[in-house]
Amino acid sequence: VKKEKQTPIPSPSTSTSIVTTPAVAEINMAGLSARERNMLKRKMKSESKMKNKSEKVRVMDVKNKSDHPTPKPVKIEKEEFDFTAQPQSNKFVVESKKQNVADTTGEELQRDWPFKMICEHLCLDLFDPAWEIRHGAGIGLRSILKAHGEGSGKKEDCAIRLLCVFALDRFADFVSDQVVCPVRETCSQTLGVVLQYMTPEAVKQVHENLLKLIDQQDPAFDGRSIWEVRHAGLLGLKYAVAVRKDLVEILVEGTTGAVILGLRDHDDDVRAVSAATLLPITAEFVRLSSKERIRDVIMTLWDCLIDLKDDLTASTGAVMDLIAKMFEQPGVMDIVRENLSLSKLVPRLHPFFRHTISGVRLAVLNTLLTFLDCGTSSEWVDDRVYRLVFQNLIVEEKAEIVEKSLAVWRGFTIDSKVDNTLVLQGTQNWLGSWFEITMTPIGQPLDTANYFYKPPGAFGIGESTLVDKNKKSNNKKTAKTAAIPEGVRSSLEEEAGHNLDAGMIAQDFSLITMNQVMRCRVACTTALGMAMSTWPDESMALSYQEVLLTLLGSQWALKRQLGAMAVEEWAKAVLMTRYNANDLIHAPPEAILANTHNFPKTLSDAMIANLENAATHTTGFYFELVHVLKRIRGECQNLLNAFHSEAKVPLDQIPTLPALVPGEALPEQGPLFTIETAASVISEMFDGLLAKVPKGKGRANSLKALEERQRRVVASMGYFEELKQKIEINVYASTAGAVVELGVLPTKLNPVIRSVMNSIKYEENLELQQRSAATLADLIVLCERANQTRANPNDKIVKNLCTFLCSDMTVTPVLQDNQVQSGILSIQKEETTSKTKEVAQLTQEQKDAQLTKRGAEISLHELCKRFGPRVFETVPKLKECISQKMMEVFPEHGVDQADGLIRKDPSLGQEVIDSLTVLTMVVPCLSEGLWDDVSQIVPYVCRSLQSCYAVIRTMSAKCLAAIANVITNKTMHMIVEQVLPQLSNPLNVYHRQGAAELIYHLVQLLDTKILPYTIFLIVPILGRMSDTDDSVRLICTNCFALLIKLVPLEAGIPDPPGMSAEMLAHRDEERRFLSQLLDSSKVENYEIPVKIKAELRKYQQEGVNWLAFLNKFHLHGILCDDMGLGKTLQSICILAGDHYTRDEKFKETQSPEFTHCPSLVICPPTLTGHWYHEILNYCDNLKPLLYTGGPNERKKIRASFKNFNV
Q1: Cα–Cα nearest to 29, from 44, 18, 40
Q2: Per residue, what are the HEC states of 1151-1185?
Q3: Which domains does the chain have, with CATH numbers?
Q4: What residue stretches are annotated with the Mot1 central domain (predicted)?
Q5: pLDDT in tens, 1085-1101
Q6: In Å, what is the CA distance from 442 to each residue of 505, 512, 515, 847, 1165?
Q7: Confidence (pLDDT) at 528
Q8: What is the C-alpha separation between 562 and 438, in angstroms, rounded?
């Protein structure tokens, strides 16, 4: 095809993009002012436009006989031209292609690694004098090489520089109990990254150099031992062997020698990293090493436990972890036992049970568990380890160590890992002592002098000189210890240097919390129950029946509570050992312990009697209440005395109160001051004395002061009653737990049920609340089994639990108070909380509601966990609470009807909200076998999402998101098919708000589970970012910002199972849309359906394609280009095409979606005429109207809008 020499008449926008010439690039503007530089830029831009206009452009006419012209392919040897077909015309515009400079040089540019220069700079910074810069350089190199290291050509060079840093860096700091070397640590991690890409030979060379840094035998060291260099070498070695396990056969021998050398080093931090080096390759080391080598490492590790300088030795934890890991490997135990007995090795662990570092204490327990699993208990288990583990339980503050100690105790007692004879020998002499120390009243110091075992070499026993940061002043300490018994005081003084357990031993609540103390006591009762279960019932009846009965009838509430817990834990352990059942649900029906022997029967009868007595009258007093009652007595006496001192009532008319309270003396010793006495003081006595107050000038002030004292007594009495209620809840809940576990229920169930439910409602301690929840599950089992002989209370219990679950109004709103219809409550609540920095103080009622809700949630989770797929069969009321009201109120095609019912009777709406709350809370712990049942409820929840009530929509969105988080695939399919179409519903804003709110909660909750469905969500969300409703627009914008980050990850996710062919096709369509959205070059060509009286250049056609793409998906955009390049023409083209298409579709469908709707062009007044004439000039189907002039003129024009379309 030849180019014509003449230039055709240009359209109003025939130009191309500006290309900067080399001449322009070489102009030096340094000496010009800002004004001169701008003038020169404008001049160059103008010259560039004139140059581009002189380019050769040919308009070809390819008219043929066909009415619809089809261009014939034109063969060109090299693609040097662009062809642009003209709309509804036989012509093409032919333009020469521009040479892209980047295309010719790109290949050369790609030959160099793009991060070469920055890595060079970072490698230089590795040797900066400031440690912060060295540290930052190491982090930067690590990040770059981790992501792009494979293309780097200087891996060996980088490794050499890192080795140099290891040899030169001396910076170290100490945090808590261990050294922190940020430069060496980051550089060793970087070396690990580099070694991943290096050849085996290069890795071997690096390994050899690391060994030289560790051995320090090179002449360069001049006989010196530099711990920082050895520490750095071991750090590098740790990461080297961890990342190149494929070369372990080459590296293991040298590494083992270096580890042994490091373990024998005098520096503790070197020992710590040495042990950590061998941890990742322990299995490989054992497999590849000789028996002598393995024995050498093991004995070196055991020797490390002896060579310790203080109780802050950081290596101890790592050494013990490595010991445990070594003994887990097959054959290691036999190798060690060939030369040495564990009875000599294990006692080396004893001093570390109460080590200052929590990681060490945990490592000791893990090591013992490993030895138990190896079946070697007969060599080393004796009464010392039993005592040490029990001591852990009574004084340990950290929950994870208490839990691990219980696991070790379980292994010692009921897991059949220790011969029963050894168990009896280890516990027989100490069981009574353990009972006594466990039952020590809270607040009284523990008698460690008589009951604790202190192994030789234990840290802090008169040897350590550590100072407690929380230690009180000498005066306070003296006052504190003055009230401590002599035996306990001597124990505390002996342990003055070792204050790890000082708070727990002294029961000092400025150092510990009540929850920590109760956790330890409950763990001790569990251990006692396990130990008792190993003894025959006859022995227990002879030795401990009276002890337990005394505890169950004690006036100390704590002893009653813990005594009942010990019985309960004994029953659980017996079920496990004799019936192989974890709980009553899995136990055989004949496993009713109270009927198996007189010992449990006697205990059961005593506890049932306690529960039944509690229903008729409360206990007279508990010792825990004595101090409160004494204070009330003092306040009451002061109140009565004030009548004489302040109100001038004669002294002989002031009654005298009893001097002692229950607990200080027996009732037969004379009248005692009780809470009833206090009640009479503030009522009858107060009123009687008030009448005797003489009238006078100061009477009013006296009465005011007396009433203030009365209010103080009333407040103290309220505290007394509240404290007593909490104590009784604890006592009777633990008693009910023991009764249920023994398997025989009283004739009347109310005392048991009430005790358990009160604990679930009001118990503040989470662990005790969880125990009550477990008791409730066992109680439901017993009631189900006894269904034929008595009325089954299970339905009522579950109904009450669901009611409790909905008691917190911050989680379950009240419809009567929240009848707002429009809006999205989720974002309103989020905005409110973000603006309110200070959390409002909760009222007592709100705190109680939160406790009740927590207890109900724990209980329902426990039911679902215990009963598994049978939960709906065992407690059908639960399924009814979840689904019945949803199905009744929101039947198929009945959303408007449902809203009408709720409007007439708001209680129906509240029941729906409650059902949604219960379903939201329960679905995460339902068995997979019940997922189909839940899926049947999903369509009803989808319909409730369209309710006119905002609060119902919010709860439905949260519920659907919770279901989707568990039953992801099936629920998401239903959401895509049933809910997402509502997001584009133009007729009902409530439907759009509900769908948008659901997507918001899905994005917040599902995390990566939402990846396969990202494409389905993001396109509808994108279209709603310009919704007319503010709340929809805001929440969709937030969702889009979160979803767009997931789009690059979506393509690599496999298709979720069960996705239909229609959904897959729909997803591919949405993917195509997104690719066009993110890359305008992929936008499909738009054929303008009407004739345009101008020749469109290629870039102009691309602009029209992009505008058509936006129009198709209801998006918005801004068409930007330089002046004179045809933006007006492109806009006219899309307006003409869109109006033509709408008119044609309206003729076909008569749909209101395509009804007459004029377009509006807003422009400066000086351009309105220009636009008007351009529209008339370029197309025939648009009818423009000039809407200009003053208000009166524009008012006259409005009536003619229907006759125009622009």
Answers
A1: 40
A2: CHHHCCCCCCCCCCHHHHHHHHHHHHHHCCCCCCC
A3: 113-334 (1.25.10.10), 801-828+848-1078 (1.25.10), 1098-1203 (no CATH)
A4: 409-881
A5: 888 888 888 888 888 88
A6: 11, 12, 11, 25, 87
A7: 96
A8: 8
